Amino acid sequence: PEPTHTTPTSRGYKPNQQVTNCTRRCGNIDIQFPFGLEEGCFAREVFQLNCTNTTTSTLQMKDDDENQVTYINIEEGLVEINYTADYYNLRFSANYIDEESNLYMSSYWHTSSVQWAVANLTCQEAQMDMSRYACVSSNSTCLIVNSTMNGFYGYRCKCSPGYQGNPYVHTGCQDINECTNTRGICEEVCHNTVGSYYCTKCPPKMDYDTTTMQCTSIKRQNIYIGIIIGLSSGFGVLFLSLSGVFIVHKWKSHIRRQMRRKYFRKNQGLLLEQLISSDENASDKTRIFSVEELEKATDNFHQTRIVGRGGHGMVYKGILSDQRVVAIKKSKVIEQGEINQFINEVAILSQINHRNIVKLFGCCLETEVPLLVYDFIPNGSLYGILHSDSNTSCLSWDDCIRIALEAAGALSYLHSAASISVFHRDVKSSNILLDGNYTAKVADFGASRLVSIDQTHIVTNVQGTFGYLDREYYYTGQLNEKSDVYSFGVVLIELLLRREPIFTSESGSKQNLSNYFLSGLKARPVTEIVAAQVLDEATEEEISSVASLAEMCLRLRGEDRPTMKHVEMALRVLQTERLKLCHVDPGNAQEKEPLLTPAREKDSSDQLVASDCVNANLASENMKPCYSFEQEFMSYDGVSR
Fold this sequence. Notes:
The protein is α+β, with helices and mostly antiparallel strands. Among the domains are: 8-173, no CATH class; 217-263; 267-376, Phosphorylase Kinase, domain 1 (2-Layer Sandwich). 32% of the residues lie in helices and 19% in strands. The chain has a 6-stranded antiparallel beta sheet, with no helix packed on it. A 6-stranded mixed beta sheet has the order 17-21-22-20-19-18. Helix 5 runs parallel beside helix 8 (339-349). The longest helix has 49 residues, at 218-266. The protein is rod-shaped and about 150 Å long.
């Protein structure tokens, strides 16, 4: 039987906190009543603690500098104490008992959970003196604390079932909502009561939703399930779609890289690299561009960058990373058998450094058809200037002679001065470009053919532009240097007559310019068929000379035509004679005092007047722009007719 007696410990317990605003934390350790730090904040002296350092959560018992309290559990009646190894605490020894020390029970000398009691009384004994009874919460109960090891006994308080909190405070034990704190406590609907709960079933045609923990109609529940399934499916499809797009993008990128490598090998890129690396001159001038560089330079070959369309492809204006403005020619599909010839052509053109031939910067071999990168020529083509909408061309007669001479010199160089002969095969005014100084630049070698020096001709499929096409080549298929001579003769006629190679006559029918010119020479004087501007600026002798030269170039048999070297020499003589009449040194074209003569009369058309000399000297210097910015280079590569 439990002893019945009253000890001093029963008198020392104070069930109510004496002061307000007590400190209830030491660092991260909660200190709840009956424990406390300040006077009036604890229930008895043995429950007084000392917080020595809040930063390190150093909490010690009163008058005890050795042992440290690390945790206090009010509901379980436990205190976690960290004992020092060399300290023998008589407070927890069974051999030493004072009036309050035996309220703690422990049997270890190191970290241990220590049970504690509020008084050495049984529950019945404690309830006999309600003024000192510790379980002050109305929803609390008394528990016996005893130990068979050291004879310890006493009581502590705990909240009743269905409640939780601090039983040593009047309102410390609060109701527990089992329905929210304990999921699955009911199979269907849970209802919380004070200190307890009860379960009910859902009404008919309703089912319990474990997500919302409420009864919902079966129809609505199906809607919710459908929404959840739909959202899940939607996110799943979105995820799969994004994954698919990413995979397809990576796959397409891989395919593009594979295709570029395939085209590079197909277009003999390795051969061209070998040719460039073995030729020091070519390696300095020619470069193999990647398709990414040219796509960036042309905004991915945007249609607004197109500056020319022709029979052999399209030309784009581009700006390289080094800020060079270039013309990028994208040719039409060519036969595989022509790829090797194209590579040789690029290798040859990369070594050509003629002032009247468009400079080739390099090529790109990563596309189905190789791309050529040329120097950009800003002032368009001779064709565009001669046949512009304005009635009067901005080119003077002296400019026409100079441009014809420069173009003839370039073709002569290709035919006889280069290391291997090059037949242009598409000579026309739209392929004679004019740079910023209106210097002629022969362009578009897309139809050109390379011929060894010992060959006089090659047999090819007929290719060219109607109106310029050599008739002998058209009927025989034999291409030779005289085919370019014939085409150049048509250009000379354009300069004289200022008509297109295929033009509409006054009767409304299409007419060939060369036929019109040759038949006109037989029927009437040449001065009656040339353009009015030419008639005003040139002498009759000069007109006759150019017309005679054009007629020789247009002869039906190629062997009867002059070579481009002879054409160049004839034009140079014509330019020299004209400059001599104006007292200008043909070597440097410096203006001197003009020869003043009376105004030209009808029977003295072979004389130059002062105004003609001025035009001869100042034509290139004072030439007005022939193109607007929007029209620049629009005729590059020309239009096949």
